[in-house]
Write a structure and sequence with these properties.
There is one protein chain. Strands 1-3-2-4-6-5 form a six-stranded mixed beta sheet, with helices on both faces. The longest helix has 23 residues, at 2-24. It is an alpha/beta fold. Helix 1 (2-24) packs antiparallel against helix 2 (28-37). It has nine helices and six strands, in the order H-H-E-E-H-H-E-H-E-H-H-E-E-H-H. Strand 5 and strand 6 (177-183) form a beta hairpin.
């Protein structure tokens, strides 16, 4: 039935629209404006008050990609500013990465009730995330939480088996590849404090690789 095809057709159209808007964005300001104007992600009309795009250093060597904004982020218009964000900032600081990170999410509007974003919602936003990676040119990605790691790396394993391993993110045209480290979401760490040790190891592993001399013996 034609009705069954509608959602995927809409997603394909949204992705095509996002790709065109993202490609036209020459810098992060233009990209932020393009995202705010984009109507292809259904989350925009499901109670979110504004697009939440990024915070941090536009020239950062590390890009952190979370899942999606929550209530605090929706209010302030910046990612990772609530309790989980404060924990993330403390870990960034302790690992010596303050001022060296650019923080965004796989979707730019708060999912209702802070639910996990769907793959369709992530797909509609993906061209903008990819464009941000092209503009910031990070050396490494830190993928925070299962929904981010699985979508960005096209993996179906859970975050507990993905975390702490160096994998590779590739752009849709395969032209750009960036080493990526999946790790646990700080919201999960707040609920499961015993897991903090593992997330801390991931953060230190990334910081150590970042500061290693370029020329390996």
């Amino acid at each position: 039935a034609p009705g069954l095809l509608a959602p995927s057709t809409n997603v394909a159209q949204a992705v095509a629209d996002a790709r065109a808007l993202a490609a036209a964005a020459a810098d992060l300001d233009a990209l932020t404006a393009a995202i705010a104007a984009f109507d292809g992600c259904p989350l925009k009309t499901q109670g979110a008050t504004q697009a939440v795009v990024w915070r941090g250093n536009p020239d950062a060597p590390v890009m952190i990609v979370g899942e999606g904004p929550g209530a605090d982020e929706d209010r302030q218009g910046r990612p990772f500013v609530g309790k989980a964000g404060r924990l993330l900032d403390r870990m960034i600081d302790a690992a010596g990465l303050t001022g060296r990170v650019f923080i965004t999410n796989t979707v730019f509007w708060r999912p209702p009730g802070n639910r996990t974003p769907t793959v369709e919602e992530q797909a509609a936003c993906a061209p903008f995330v990819e464009r941000a990676i092209q503009l910031v040119k990070p050396r490494f990605l830190l993928l925070v939480g299962g929904a981010s790691a699985k979508f960005m790396l096209k993996q179906d394993q859970g975050i507990l088996s993905l975390r702490g391993r160096w994998l590779e993110w590739r752009s849709s045209d395969q032209a750009l590849a960036v080493p990526a480290m999946p790790t646990l979401h700080p919201a999960f760490l707040l609920r499961q404090p015993a897991a903090k040790k593992n997330a801390w190891i991931d953060m230190l592993t990334l910081a150590e690789r970042l500061d290693r001399p370029e020329r390996e013996p």
